[in-house]
Amino acid sequence: MTPYEATVFTELNRWQRAMQQPPSGLGRISTRLQRGMNRLIPQRVHDVVTAAIKQMTRAVLFGAEFLTRNPTEGLSMTERDALVARQIDFYRKASAAEGGVAGAGGFMLALVDFPLLLTLKMKLLFEIAALYGYRTADYRERIFMLYVFQLAFSSQDRRQDVYRHVANWTAHSQQLPGDINAFDWQTFQQEYRDYIDLAKLAQLIPGIGAAVGVVVNYRLVTQLGRTAMNAYRMRLLNEQRLIDGQPKGLKPQS
Q1: So what's the pLDDT on residue 247?
Q2: At 210, is the secondary structure helix, strand, or coil?
Q3: How many CB atoms lie within 10 A of CB 39?
Q4: Which of 55, 119, 226, 242 could form a disulfide with 237 if both were Cys (CB 3.0 to 4.6 A apart)?
């Protein structure tokens, strides 16, 4: 094993443990606070976010507008990771710039930021999937991307459930329904909304909206990128029968 591969295994093992940790007391308090703050957000903001997530989910499942890259073949894990890191850096800078402009533009532009940021995140996921060698024209690959998205932006309770699907994707993908309308987009959009609303609320505050937009968008895209990188690393290594999705020394969650 090369030094880089050893680093990947260490990072992946740490990430696997984090995905399977039970919700902490602080996490539960934060969730309750977030739900309380959600009630302060104008309903039209909730309506915009819900509509944007619904439309984007349908576009990912049914559309072809994201299919801009063929799967990359014949590269080592090191080479794939380097290319993915460049894409993450590009998209988080683009999202930060977009968030800053939207935050400086007041309430209406802040509303526009939600669907724009979601589009950038989805484009990044398609890029990452292709760079790790997966053919995103297959609807099962698109379902996998939506699971990865949920891993990045869900409560810890939901994250534990989603992780089990991702860690055992070969078996789980064979059980997917033939009808892609069966995907639970309602839970998907609710978890995403609950996760980001508190952070994005400050973007509506005059005077600090631009700074908040830059920082929050940058961090959200960074988090998605790192989650996707580890999910696809785990999947590749699973397929190579090098690891089993369950880090050594950690008992499976019942």
Answers
A1: 46
A2: helix
A3: 8
A4: 242
pLDDT in tens, 211-249: 566 777 888 899 999 999 999 999 998 887 655 455 443
Residue 187 has pLDDT above 90, yes or no: no
Question: What does the alpha-carbon distance between residue 211 and residue 202 come to, in Å, rounded to a whole number?
Answer: 10
- As a residue count, the chain comes to 254
What are the domain boundaries of the chain?
3-19+43-239
Output the six-digit token pair for 234: 């785990």
Q: Could you tell me which of 219, 181, 179, 182 has the C-alpha nearest to residue 199?
A: 219
Give yes or no for a contact between 192 and 114, defined as CB atoms under 8 angstroms apart. no
Token pair recorded at residue 36: 């309380």
What b/e sequence results for 143-163 when a residue is b if at least 16 CB atoms lie within 10 Å of its CB, and e otherwise?
bbbbbbbbbbbbbbebbbebb
- Distance from C-alpha of 34 to C-alpha of 39, rounded to nearest angstrom: 9
